[in-house]
Write a structure and sequence with these properties.
- The complex is a heterodimer.
- In chain A, 71% of the residues lie in helices and 1% in strands.
- By secondary structure, chain A is an all-alpha fold.
- In chain A, 45% of the residues are buried.
- A six-stranded mixed sheet of chain B has the order 6-9-10-3-11-12, with helices on both faces. In chain B, strands 18-21-22-15-23-24 form a six-stranded mixed sheet, with helices on both faces.
- Chain B starts with 5 loop residues before the first strand and ends with a helix.
- In chain B, helix 14 packs parallel to helix 15.
- Chain B is globular.
- Chain B folds into two domains: 234 residues, Rossmann fold, CATH 3.40.50; 195 residues, P-loop containing nucleotide triphosphate hydrolases (Rossmann fold), CATH 3.40.50.300.
- Chain B is an alpha/beta fold.
- The chains are: A mainly alpha, B alpha/beta.
- Chains A and B meet through helix 7 and helix 8 of A and helix 2, helix 3 and strand 8 of B.
Chain lengths: 369, 509
């Protein structure tokens, strides 16, 4: 049934789906803002998912597992920094090494440790309700009734945003990623900053890994854990112009498309109508906001943002269509229903990438003259 | 009290195979401008980097106000009151002026948060005190170069510098901006700051310096004052032999039209218009100089003419061929020589041996290629001849171009381009950053090409170079040629105003 509950549930699931993407993107932001390219987010997440799972099983505590996952991420981040700074390995290669290493190590040890001993998980982190706030309609269940890592993600986005743009640490991090020599001449230890930030970035990926095994799935099966989400997180980071809040918004769009795919597979709603409404809502809200920013930021007095308004209007039509005309029941094969996040990655990256600007010094080793 | 604020004694620095500084003694007195003159590779930068803590000397001592100090890194230097205004500004382009200035010494409120307002108030106070106008809230990359430089100077003062090292500060400025800078320098010295002014421009030295020191080959070869010396004498001290500052040339004898450009429009890398309707003509046997401050579309203009950049409007005619959308090789084959602005990026393959760099335009033609094979012997012979004819100082023709000095790298390009049978020579910043001896040589060769009937389009940000070589001077400003004047009647002031976008008619009232 297409009612308010359906959409609340959908938007709530979307936030869950967005969580590892946001954490992964913040991992990338921390590393790249300081100048180290991190394409090893996927591998870091995978290693941490594995280590976190083992930590939880052997200590019989999910929280110890989370801690192990985060620390594993820190080690992976430090390893990337070591490769990039100390050994001057090309940072794309360094990230690839981490990705390949993670697949190899986790699938090997998964067989030896998990399969051979038939280890099973100890469940997932419990849902926490914030009293009173969780009772607000729609927003309450989406924002205030979640599992702990999702809450942590929301808090971390704002902490990282403030830290990056309003504290000395953030100013130095950005300076080091943009113009390391300028930072060096005013006495900032460039490489020390990079080690610190890349390690912190690893911890974010670690938390994303812990989310997968300890908050979402509850078990570890090699080969299907991260599913390319570390790479989608990269796309989120780039499309969000290396800004945490933008990353949250973009990851949430991915989350909606992902959740939609999951939800439609249940087959209890008119698939085509739901797709129309959700896509239409996206276009309506996106088009309206885009038109508004264009209108407020316009240089030419007489210029009306026609394209953006047309987009919003088209969205409105799509939302209203199912109420006016009969949309036939269809049966889209479930393989296709899993596609949206990947298609969206291509569209968003292709559409936005020309307009974003990476930190100027990323990927370059800093050496004193 | 006559203790010098800065004194260095017996500073020596060796790099593998080079003695960069050889027992240099130097003193800087309070409130003076000490000009340091020397060619590239004379050891100026090495010495300044030692004083600023970027290098450590092998021998020698540094004294501040008579007290010996050890300077191991820039923080030590800052603590000693030494500040450096680098030639390539040490400002982060995407940050605001205030953020750049507070970097590394941030004021904090509420334990964690940057106190930008406090920094801004401090900057405004300094700004007023020294007459350095700059908006602390502006983003650095949006500011003109002159304002960026003022920000850089305030940054140094903000860190409490008493001694300011200005490294080639006028290289990026218009003549008017340079005049403003000189006023700032005087205001600084009046308030007790001491300044080391590094340059290779003789005119500036005579104008601004209280005392002059000249470095050559890592040694201090002379100390003098503007009153006691002349430009010619300083040039001789720099180079170590007689140098002709003026290029000797006969009046031009323009012939047939070689290059005709009509209403050319070109975009820059960010897709913004860079060349907005340039129309110009160059005839055989004349030099057309294009003067202008860097970044006014010169680079895009040259790239469009040589086929390296897409033309979005207008027309280019080269010897009767329409080359508006021609590929670089077509442009070359019609008879164009190109000395590009950035010799490392576009002029040479640095990793290649000199002999290969010398055939980059012709390698595919006989005698260098027969059927499918390169002819090493022909390539080597060609290189040996050119190295000799153009006086390229290289150990062997198989030495990689990267290990040559800037002047000799430029000579490799000049040799390659000038040795072909060309009709048009496009030279962009042909003498940037090279030594006086090589400049003299390249200037002579450009005039020789002109006299042999080649049309020359010379693009340069050095007004002296433009005035010395050109027969006509076109001034480019924001992608437009705002005026073309005959070289013999042009004055520095007139050109300087044009370069700043001011027409004489407007300036008159």
């Amino acid at each position: 049934m297409l009612d308010a509950n359906f959409f609340t549930a959908l938007l709530s699931l979307s936030l869950v789906k967005a969580t590892p993407l946001v954490l992964g993107a913040m991992s990338g932001i921390l590393c790249e803002r300081s100048g180290i390219i991190n394409i090893g987010i996927e591998g870091m997440m995978l290693m941490s998912a594995f280590a976190g799972f083992l930590g939880a099983v052997f200590s019989d505590s999910l929280w110890v597992g989370v801690l192990v996952g985060v620390l594993t991420g820190a080690v992976m981040g430090a390893f990337l920094a070591l490769l990039s700074i100390r050994y001057k390995v090309d940072q794309i290669i360094g990230g690839t090494v981490i990705n390949l290493l993670a697949v190899g190590i986790t699938s090997y040890f998964a067989v030896i440790i998990i399969d051979n001993q038939s280890l099973s998980g100890i469940g997932v982190l419990p849902i926490i309700q914030i009293p009173l706030l969780a009772d607000i309609p729609v927003i309450g269940p989406i924002l205030f009734r979640n599992q702990p890592i999702t809450f942590m993600m929301l808090i971390l986005v704002f902490v990282l945003h403030v830290a990056l743009f309003y504290t000395p640490w953030g100013l130095r991090t950005r300076a080091v990623g943009e113009h390391p020599r300028a930072a060096d001449t005013v006495g900032i230890r460039v490489n020390r900053m990079r080690y610190l930030d890349t390690t912190l970035g690893g911890m974010m990926a670690g938390l994303a890994g812990a989310f997968i095994t300890l908050e979402s799935v509850g078990s570890f099966e090699s080969g299907v854990m991260t599913n390319g989400r570390g790479f989608i997180a990269l796309a989120v980071m780039v499309s969000g112009n290396w800004r945490p809040i933008n990353a949250l918004i973009i990851a949430y769009i991915f989350g909606v498309s992902d959740a939609l795919g999951v939800r439609l597979q249940l087959g209890d709603v008119n698939q085509l109508a739901t797709l129309l409404i959700v896509a239409g809502l996206g276009m309506l809200i996106g088009g309206a906001l885009w038109a508004l920013t264009k209108y407020l930021g316009r240089r030419d007095e007489n210029k009306v943002p026609v394209t953006q308004i047309a987009l919003a209007v088209a969205g409105l039509v799509m939302v209203l269509a199912p109420a006016i005309v009969e949309i036939p029941e269809t049966n889209i094969p479930f393989q296709f229903l899993g596609l949206p996040p990947y298609i969206l990655t291509i569209i968003i990256v292709a559409g936005l990438v020309g307009n974003v600007r990476p930190p100027a010094a990323e990927g370059k080793v800093y050496e004193k003259q | 009290m006559d203790e010098p604020v800065l004194r260095v004694r017996g500073i020596t620095k060796r790099f593998p195979g080079v003695l960069a500084n050889d027992h240099i003694d130097l003193e800087l007195r309070r409130g003076e401008v000490l000009a340091m003159l020397g060619e590239n590779g004379a050891g100026k930068s090495t010495l300044m980097n030692i004083i600023y803590g970027l290098y450590t000397q092998d021998e020698g001592e540094i004294y501040i106000n008579g007290r010996q100090v050890e300077i191991r890194n820039p923080e030590d230097a800052i603590r000693c009151g030494i500040g450096m205004v680098h030639q390539h500004f040490m400002l982060v382009p995407v940050l605001t002026v205030a953020e750049n200035l507070m970097l590394g010494m941030e004021h904090v409120r509420g334990y964690f948060f940057l106190d930008k307002e406090r920094t801004i108030r401090e900057i405004e106070a300094l700004s007023k005190q020294y007459g350095l106008e700059v908006d602390p809230r502006a983003t650095v990359e949006d500011l003109p170069v002159g304002a960026q430089q003022r920000a850089e100077i305030i940054k140094v003062l903000y860190r409490g510098a008493e001694i300011l090292i200005l490294d080639e500060p006028t290289a990026v400025l218009t003549p008017q901006e340079a005049d403003d800078l000189f006023m700032v320098v005087r205001s600084l010295t009046e308030q007790g700051k001491s300044i080391i002014f590094i340059t290779h421009k003789l005119r500036e030295v005579m104008e601004i310096a209280d005392r002059i020191v000249v470095l050559r080959g890592g040694k201090l070869v002379g100390t003098t004052t503007p009153a006691e010396t002349s430009r010619a004498e300083l040039a001789n001290m720099m180079v170590g032999r007689e140098v002709l500052l003026q290029v000797e040339k006969e009046p031009a004898a323009p012939g047939e039209m070689v290059l005709a450009v009509r209403d050319l429009r070109v975009l820059d890398d960010r897709e913004h218009p860079a060349v907005n309707g340039v129309t110009l003509e160059v005839r055989a046997g004349e030099v057309l100089g294009v003067a202008g401050v860097q970044g006014n579309g010169q680079r895009e203009l040259v790239e469009a003419l040589t086929g390296l950049r897409k033309v979005t409007g207008g027309q280019v005619q080269l010897l009767g061929h329409d080359t508006t959308h021609a590929a670089p090789r077509q442009v070359i084959e019609i008879g164009t020589a190109h000395v590009p602005e950035d010799r490392h990026k576009h002029g040479l393959v640095l990793a290649y041996p000199v002999e290969d760099d010398l055939v980059l335009c012709t390698y595919y033609l006989p005698p260098f290629t027969r059927s499918f094979n390169l002819q090493p012997y022909a390539i080597e012979t060609n290189a040996v001849n050119l190295v000799d004819a153009f006086d390229i100082r290289t150990p062997t023709v198989a030495t990689p171009a990267s290990s040559l000095s800037g002047g000799n790298q430029q000579k490799v390009i000049v040799a390659r381009e000038f040795s072909r049978n060309v009709k048009l020579l496009i030279a962009a910043q042909p003498t940037r950053g090279i030594d006086v001896g090589s400049i003299e040589f390249i200037h002579k060769n450009i005039i020789a090409q002109r006299d042999a009937g080649v049309a020359v389009l010379l693009v340069s940000a050095e007004l002296d170079e433009i005035m010395a070589l050109s027969d006509r001077i076109a001034v480019i400003y924001k992608g437009e040629i705002i005026d073309t004047v005959p070289a013999e009647t042009a004055t520095r002031e007139q050109l300087g105003l044009l370069m700043a976008g001011v027409h004489e008619a407007e300036a008159g009232d």
